Amino acid sequence: MNNLQARFRSMESYQQDSLQRDSLRRTGQYFSFPIRGYSTSAIGGTHGEGYKGTGFDLFDYNVRGSHPAQDIFVNDRNQDNIDDRTGKPVDILAMSRGLVLAIETDWKPGSDYRGGNWIWVYDPTLHGLFYYAHNSEVDVSPGQWVKAGEKLAEMGRSGFNAYKSRSPTHLHLMYLQIQPNGLPQPLNTYEWLLTARPSK
Questions:
Q1: Which of 46, 101, 113, 132 is the most buried (most CB within 10 A)?
Q2: CA distance 115 to 46
Q3: 147 lies in which domain range?
Q4: Domain assignment of residue 189, yes or no
Q5: DSSP assignment of 115-126
Q6: What CATH number corresponds to the domain at position 157?
Q7: Angle at 33 between CA 30 and CA 39, to 5 degrees
Q8: Tens digits of per-residue pLDDT, 35-70?
Q9: What is the pTM of this model?
């Protein structure tokens, strides 16, 4: 993570201090809402209380009880990964510009992996990682540069719990802020989502 940051900091266009980054996040111009055709009313719960970052450990798969993410739900009553309103798959969009670091595309029902088909995108301006989980189809590759609002995937129901019928179809969106020691710390994206530009 620190090597990534060093690489992008060496490029003049990314030399920004923390005040500049905070200003970007508040303008309403930096983020795109990560689901095409949906808005903040699709965020689970009330006022983003679905986020529970306490106890999260990215490197310990056995940790349970935390949910350091916002779940964003779509209209899919019969759980076929098709939007009931449009009759089409739902596009997952990049919240911000960044570099695709890793993807998973081979999740199968019965696998105990919770994220299913996922995508990690590194945002060099924020120096953090966006994680988009439970996709049906992933449309980007590691090493690819994406812009805010660009399609990353199609929403799905992949993942150990997301595949179960009791789980409504949703995007699991997590952001990890890279600390000075290089370790990731979850950060609630709710306020960012409120300012994000919707995409039709």
A1: 132
A2: 23
A3: 2-12+33-47+67-195
A4: yes
A5: S-EEEEEEETTT
A6: 2.70.70.10
A7: 135
A8: 999 999 999 988 889 999 888 888 887 777 899 999
A9: 0.92
